[in-house]
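User: For a benchmark we're assembling, each entry needs the component sequences followed by a predicted structure for the full assembly. Here are entry 17's components. Please fill in the structure.
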Amino acid sequence: MATQHSRSAARFMMAPAVVLLLGWMLVPLTMTLYFSFKKYLPLRGGDLGWVGFDNYVRFVTSSAFWPSVMTTLIIVGGVLLITVVFGVLLAILLNQPMWGQGIVRILVIAPFFVMPTVSALVWKNMFMDPNYGLLAYLWEFFGAQPVEWLSQASLTSIIMIVSWQWLPFATLILLTAIQSLDSEQLEAAEMDSAPAFKRFIYIVLPHLSRAVTVVILIQTIFLLSIFAEIFVTTGGAFGTRTLTYLIFQRVLESQNVGLGSAGGVYAIILANIVAIFLMRIVGKNLDA
Amino acid sequence: MGHIKLDQVSKTFGSVEVIPPLDLTIEDGEFTVFVGPSGCGKSTLLRLIAGLEDITSGHIEIDGADATLVPPAKRGLAMVFQSYALYPHMTVRKNIAFPMKMAGVPKAEQEKRITAAALALNLTDYLDRRPGQLSGGQRQRVAIGRAIVREPSAFLFDEPLSNLDAALRVGMRMEISELHKKLATTMVYVTHDQVEAMTMADKIVVLQAGVIEQVGSPLELYRAPRNKFVAGFIGSPKMNLIEGAEAAKHGAETIGIRPEHIEVSTTEGTWQGTIGVAEHLGSDTFLHVHGIEGCDPMTVRVNGELSLKHRERVYLTPNLTHLHRFGADGLRLE
Amino acid sequence: MARSVTPRRKALNTAAAWSVGLLIFFPILWTILTSFKTEAQAIADPPLFLGFDWTLENYATVMERSNYGRFLWNSIVIAGGSTLLGILIAVPAAWSMAFVPSKRTKDILLWMLSTKMLPAVGVLYPIYLLSIQFGVLDSKIALVVILMLINLPIIVWMLYTYFKEIPGEILEAARMDGASLKEEVLYVLTPMAIPGIASTILLNVILAWNEAFWTLNLTAAKAAPLTAFIASYSSPEGLFYAKLSAASTMAIAPILILGWFSQKQLVSGLTFGAVK
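Assistant: Structure for entry 17:
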């Protein structure tokens, strides 16, 4: 269905979205690149001239850089592991015949609606507080020494909070995928006398592989840039400074825009590596 | 009015030439059927006439005026789609009213035409339902109703019956034919089913790979197919095409004989063979006979019931007045 | 798997699923319960589940202390505005991609999605600077535009997948019936895509409502939405669990209620059309 007329109409109708996104991408990116080659301290003299690759070198060689990359990877990896494993289990559980399935589903989705600042604050104070938090009561109840979650087990705590927020997303996508599994396939396997565990390994899991990929990739996009959870809980202390947070501190807290911009370029490169993988998978889905 | 003339019309998609330049005239009031195997370009040709695709070169004339660059809505044509393309969010009444609403027909006039169309198409009781609540045949009628109320100069049908089951198809075929008799408006109808073409058309256009193989009335095509392709495509069961020595006897590269033009005997005849499969339909019997040189199996149609069975030996004699002869280029020899 | 199971098996499933569901929901439930306690009861040892004196005093205090209404209004304007603006821009674009595809359509879609991966922090300072330049720092309009831009790829993508499911023949029928492009989109495409558009709107309202990078970094007193309202509670001032809970409940309640009522549409939206 394409006449010359409809094709030109299509171009015209696509233009606003394309132009806006192009601007949104290019303008700030160019500025970031520009600043990254400058010594630029807004509160201490402003633009102090070109410095070549100094900022890039300084950012990578600073003692905070590699730990921040590690922290980022640990958080992203940990959350992905937890949400995917529990997501699959939960999706299978929710797909079983039961009473009140709709209500259970509502309960499970709920954390997705909670804004990151709220969930971080609630977890930090009401659950993870070493004196008054609910987890402290629980530990004491079993006679254990309460854990100072956000200082002694800071990364674990952050991973727990973020996993809680993203588990609903993983579960829902995986549940949708399981529901699309043709029950005749399972029945055929049952007729071939495959036990339940083998049916899961050989039929359910392969069927879920695409959904798992989608979960991993979409979550990665969002997880690479988690901010509020750290901002509200530890403020980047106790080894929870991710790359995102490090750059935020360079730009807004120490007001070293040049250095922060160089860090931003690194973050963009990191994100693009992930993006390439994502695009290839999504691109394949587009053809299907 | 409804006179459509295609003048050297062609269509290419990218570098693929779907329709090489062709000429065709559709007379006012005529029921024209485009028929051909899938992918022959018949639907594309219809969409070119509708204006849903741009033509790559040539001109389209509707009622004497050049319509090449006229958008679909302004060509005065109505189209019935294969999927019916009803608006699922509108009731039957609103579906039928939609083209009139777009054209700014006054409300009272709209009502009058809807009532008339609903009466003609047996839809009166369904006007306030949505397409989702209708059967396939009823949806088809709504699609036709939506086309009728526009009072177009020509109707375009794109395989309108292919989503219906066999029994319904026969009924709808009759209804569309009757509609044509009543309205006497030009209709252009696309199908891959030669039975539909034979039963409905005033004029059949046989297409293959975007090329018009033959244009003519159903019986012209049946009696004198212009080439081997048309010979094999029109008629059911298909014409037997025989090559080699048998054909040479008649001074042709290939000869063709329709299954209904062969005599069967158990004692004597021109050709000898054994029955492979015998299909007993009651009114007819189709025999698939093996062992005849140049055509294996040969299909034979015998009226009524016949007690011949698998592996029996039979003799076949073609009725030479109905023999078709084709040359090396596939064209008919007179 | 519409298969018959024994009632015993079903009961076990039910028990397991409800336990897990309640466990996941517990932090929210606990927050809501705590918001009705007094500060002393909120930190009582052992914790009180239901046997406490229900009070609305925390809500009153929170309302008094900070102007909840203004934060709420900012959230509504920012989330709603950015979503509607995004839809207005995305519907025509998605129409083009779904119904007049060209060789480049796929590349354009992928490119749009890839802008979503631009880390916000990488462009924080430029945006900050531009906001000052245009005099829109700490204004709702800046956040409406920025959140619209960061969610636009998702909106286009979702609408595209929904539109793709609408048969092109119906739009052609409209064209044959004499509808102009505008009428085709307005009377035929949009009504047919309402469920898809609704899912898209919902998911994006939620994403925008909960967005907590730009809303925290580009607002101060004037345009701050609920994310910032809550963040202001991150520095503890004595015993404050009940008040924190009340504030939290007020911040998440609107979206929680909206989400629950529109669960079905949301589920399809959440999968981004990536899983069928």
